[in-house]
Design goal:
Length: about 450
């Protein structure tokens, strides 16, 4: 498989201006049921496996007011009992036949996925349709999963010396958009959630017209259609409209600076954020390439300058957090012993300025494309990876077929495109800067 990837990448990088990548597109079939459920399938008989995924258009941005972390907590509840299944039955239906299951919550979506031998496909379709409408939203399940999420918060943020830095990245970078509520929530707002909130949330968002069913693997297409109609087609579409986020994050007009103190921070750190365009923007490929040039690997500009040469930071990087609405472009650095976060901030600004004025070299551009394309190809080696890519295309591009054009879009990015997006989105006077230090946390968000 590695040989195939290398040859495919070589084909892409030598395709030239014609944009012919030589990669076979995924053969996607799609339809929409009368109840609004989007059904997307790809037949892949390379292995006797099938991936079943259900992506709901609900994420942490849809948390009830004053109850952040709710969508993530509800994801946990979806693995509890239903009218027809006892607790943890999804584990038995997958793990006991040699498969697996999992889920994740992001700002814009919550997705559930399973991989099983293909002869268990019908069982998994039934199970996913059952928990779409028959989840047992009861006090015991609600309180136990809320406690689990609280413990996740403690481990990920309170006991992790730098966990709260990234909590603050979301919380302080937005003024009005609910993206400012980090997906994990916080202990106070998780405690404020009620069983009634859970039932209302379930009825509001877990419905066929707010979901996409994705099936990739070894199946008979006609038989699959019959099963989908049998198990999902009978679910009624609710009469009420789905509540959507309408808040619009305003453009930044100035730099905002914050100092946050925590008692368990061994060395100071800094984060710098800029606002990113929404996921449907045609600027995203150029921003992804800029991110690879700045921060992908030990040969990247940030590693070479801040860690290797100047030895300002023990850890530093940059990442794009692209969302359906306004996302974030985030630099972060943890100071090396005896070094200052002021020096790290200045070094970040210098690297930004260089890329804005000089652009990447031709070698840097090709290397970045190479890495990104390899990542795409490796991610799609399995039926689960293909289904995951389709789910991302549905949520973030509003089109499952976008998976068949992302490599070509990356390939078309030029040095001038990188310079243009850097100058457009990295205005030195429109930053959010967070200094994160050891100290008394009085007034810090719990």
């Amino acid at each position: 498989m590695r040989k195939f990837i290398i040859l495919a990448v070589f084909s892409i990088l030598t395709a030239g201006a014609s944009g012919q990548t030589g990669i076979a597109p995924l053969d996607i079939d799609q339809r929409t049921l009368q109840n609004g459920l989007q059904v997307v399938t790809v037949r892949d008989t390379a292995t006797p496996l099938v991936s079943v995924q259900v992506w709901y258009r609900v994420g942490s941005k849809d948390d009830p007011d004053g109850k952040s972390g709710f969508a993530h907590m509800f994801e946990h509840m979806m693995f509890k009992a239903t009218k027809n299944m006892p607790n943890e039955k999804m584990d038995r239906l997958t793990e006991d036949v040699g498969g697996f299951n999992n889920a994740f919550t992001a700002d814009d979506t919550t997705a559930y996925y399973e991989v099983v031998p293909s002869n268990y496909l019908e069982t998994l379709l039934w199970a996913e349709s059952d928990r779409m409408v028959n989840l047992a939203v009861d006090k015991g399940n609600f309180e136990s999963e809320r406690d689990v999420v609280k413990e996740e918060y403690r481990q990920r943020y309170e006991t992790n010396p730098y966990g709260m830095l990234f909590w603050y990245v979301d919380n302080l970078s937005y003024k009005v958009h609910p993206y400012k509520r980090p997906g994990i929530g916080n202990l106070e707002e998780l405690s404020a959630a009620t069983l009634e909130d859970a039932f209302k949330f379930y009825r509001e968002y877990y419905r066929p017209d707010n979901a996409a069913l994705i099936v990739v693997g070894d199946f008979d297409s006609e038989q699959l259609d019959r099963w989908v109609d049998k198990y999902f087609g009978r679910i009624e579409k609710p009469a009420d409209n789905i509540k959507r986020v309408t808040a619009v994050e305003p453009p930044r007009t100035e730099t905002a600076r914050f100092i946050k103190l925590r008692p368990n921070v061994p060395l100071p750190a800094v984060a710098i954020t800029y606002l990113a365009p929404p996921s449907t923007s045609n600027e995203i490929p150029a921003l992804e390439i800029a991110a690879a040039i700045l921060s992908d690997g030990r040969s990247s500009r940030i590693y070479q300058e801040l860690i290797y040469k100047q030895q300002l930071a023990q850890d530093a990087g940059f990442f794009t957090d692209i969302r359906t609405d306004t996302g974030l472009l985030t630099f972060y650095g943890i100071a090396a012993s005896g070094k200052s976060i002021e020096a790290i901030e200045a070094a970040f600004l210098k690297e930004i300025s260089k890329l804005k004025t000089e652009g990447p070299t031709a070698d840097e551009l090709m290397k970045a494309k190479n890495k990104l394309v390899v990542g795409i190809l490796e991610g799609r080696e399995t039926v689960n990876g293909k289904a995951q890519a389709i789910g991302n295309a549905i949520i973030y591009q509003n089109d499952p077929n976008a998976v068949n054009s992302d490599v070509a879009k990356l390939q078309r990015v030029t040095i001038e495109d990188v310079v243009q997006v850097m100058n457009k989105h990295f205005d030195e006077n429109k930053r959010t800067v967070i200094y994160y230090k050891q100290g008394d946390e009085t007034g810090a968000k719990k």
